[in-house]
# Entry
Amino acid sequence: MVKIQNIALGEFPLLLAPMEDVSDPPFRAVCKANGADLMYTEFISSEGLIRDAAKSVQKLDIFEYERPIGIQLFGSDIETMRACGEIATKANPDLIDINYGCPVKQVACKGAGAALLQDIPKMVAMTKAVVESTHLPVTVKTRLGWDESTKNIQDVAERLQDIGIQALTIHGRTRVQMYKGEADWTLIGKIKENPRITIPIFGNGDIDSPEKALEYKNRYGVDGIMIGRASIGYPWIFNEIKHFVRTGTHLPPPTIQDRIDVCKKHLDFSIQWKGNHVGIVEMRRHYANYFKGISHFKEFRIRLVTSLDYAEILGILEEVAQHYALAAL
# Structure
């Protein structure tokens, strides 16, 4: 049984990665329903949270059915992060996660996210401040290093464990790599082999199939896997991996009707959380992903992303069901 402090996550937990503009409550709801064991909010700017910025505050929204869930914070100032640890604690998540992995310029160029990989003493001091700010377990997500010459994650793992983090997720790329090339899990495996490391170690990067999940589990000995991009439009991946790890066989792929049903649920959650107009508009980014690989879907997608009427969207999805049911005959 893998545990983060007192949070039991199962034998080989699958984590939903915190993804900006993706892993909001509506998306998390469909992932939870399809087997995600631990989820995180979108990452929240400590500067935005301390200023009470509406977008940052809204990201603190969590729901009972999501548990266990972590609030993920990022920032560049130690005392601001300490204060945000206190604010996040009041939102009553199960844990707080610190992002030291985000590679995008808007974050890293402000000294936050993966930028801290260039200043490990500051990363350690910031983590200690957040650990001291809360009674909740604190976890960290990071990368192998800033670039090829600074892959210092083995030292970082020990130092962060020593100041009290309760789990570590490692993306198998450097910041310079961004999301290009292939993720290298070799160092992640070496951290698992280190007898000094006693906290759970989760691997992240390029897991997009049940076969790969099982292969990496066996090869690198990680306690669990965090899945990001492969879950977008395909929340079934969590249960598919669990089934394959347990049985060595595949679940049947989602049917067109399965895709439509989950898409509708996602849309309904989106409207409930964001309101009718914003909920419909922000759902547009997901339609292509839900029906990825379905032939001749472009016309339906164009109609879905241009409609602002809920009933009309449901009608289009019903047309999709009828069209592909007939095509299968």
